[in-house]
From TrEMBL:
InterPro entries with a match to the protein in the record: NAD(P)-bd_dom_sf, SDR_fam, Sec_Metab_Biosynth_Oxidored
Molecular function as annotated in GO: oxidoreductase activity
Domain of life: Bacteria
Keywords recorded for this protein, A-Z: Oxidoreductase
Annotated protein name in UniProt: Short chain dehydrogenase
Signal peptide limits: none
Length: 274
């Protein structure tokens, strides 16, 4: 039986994947903050055997301590992880510092992912054909990260913050596949807006998109994740990037090598400093 770990598995696309893999007989570990949403997901499935294969781990992944706690918990309980899906999301259009003092979006959309991918490397290595699916829209500019101020204490904008996380998640893929050449690491964004929870604390434009456009034009989460199911069921070693079902070119840059080292140094310093 495969073990599939899904952050943000209580809502939106993460929940659609959790429902799918519980239906197909896999073991699914859902990570999120709301046990009530997880319980609702299980009772809607109405399958006692699915409930036996499902596990919920409560964590606020914008906190490094919680992300490390998830790694410790999963490492103690699971020798092998076949798929790690990174889909936790809380969109912020304004800068927000967590109680640990980190910028919340950088912590949730990158530092937490770094902790999970590197911390669970051994469990992923134990799987025959491991895959990390990082729902981070590919294609950010190679110079997107401000290495002197990655938490954007000056001049925070949603655009800068988003581009930094996306570039960082592509660099994380270089690091992870270098350490495990059998690993499939996919950065993926939906082909169009998805009618998901769109959790966040955002301005008027994004609220409008979430409240009006998503219900009118958005794709259902279960439809949006179909390409991800194929990528998890038949993973190809190495890095890849997709928009919906379509492969897109990886951003390759002469600065990749130095940026991977700088990013890993940054993440390790943040980890030990918290
Ligand atoms: N929807 C779109 O159109 C769209 C477009 C482009 C990219 N994406 C990307 O696709 C992925 C999935 O998005 P979605 O729209 O399906 O998400 P969503 O419906 O908004 O759900 C977000 C999930 O993240 C969890 N979450 C939020 N904050 C968390 C925290 N601090 N710690 C732990 N879990 C947390 C929520 O669980 P709890 O409530 O239980 O905490 C929930 O399960 C994200 O990476 C998103 O950026 C989505």
């Amino acid at each position: 039986m495969r073990t599939i770990v899904i952050t943000g598995g209580t809502d939106g696309m993460g929940a659609a994947l959790a429902r799918h893999f519980l239906t197909t007989g896999d073991r699914v570990v859902v990570i999120g903050r709301s046990r009530a949403k997880f319980d609702g997901l299980l009772s809607a499935l109405g399958d006692p055997s699915a409930a036996d294969r499902a596990e919920f781990v409560a964590a606020d992944l914008s906190l490094l301590a919680d992300s490390r706690g998830v790694v410790a918990h999963l490492s103690a309980r699971h020798e092998q992880i076949d798929a790690l899906v990174l889909a936790a999301s809380f969109i912020r259009s304004r800068r927000h510092a967590t109680v640990e003092g980190h910028e919340a979006s950088w912590a949730l959309f990158f530092l937490s992912k770094y902790i999970l991918v590197t911390g669970l490397a051994e469990q992923l290595r134990a799987a025959g054909r491991p895959v990390v699916v990082n729902t981070s829209v590919p294609g950010a500019r190679a110079d997107a990260i401000d290495f002197d101020d990655p938490e954007l204490t000056q001049g925070f904008t949603f655009g800068k913050s988003n581009a930094q996380q996306r570039r960082a998640n592509e660099l994380l893929g270089i690091l992870a596949t270098r350490e495990n050449p059998d690993l499939s690491y996919v950065t993926w964004g939906p082909a169009r807006l998805v009618r998901s929870g769109l959790a966040g604390d955002v301005g008027a434009g994004m609220k409008f998109a979430a409240a009006i456009l998503a219900p009118l034009l958005g794709q259902q989460p279960a439809d949006a994740v179909r390409p991800l199911i194929d990528l998890i069921d038949d993973p190809a070693p190495g890095r890849a990037a997709y928009r919906g079902p379509k492969p897109v070119p990886l951003v390759e840059s002469p600065r990749d090598e130095q940026d991977v080292i700088r990013l890993a140094d940054l993440a390790r310093a943040d980890e030990s400093g918290t």
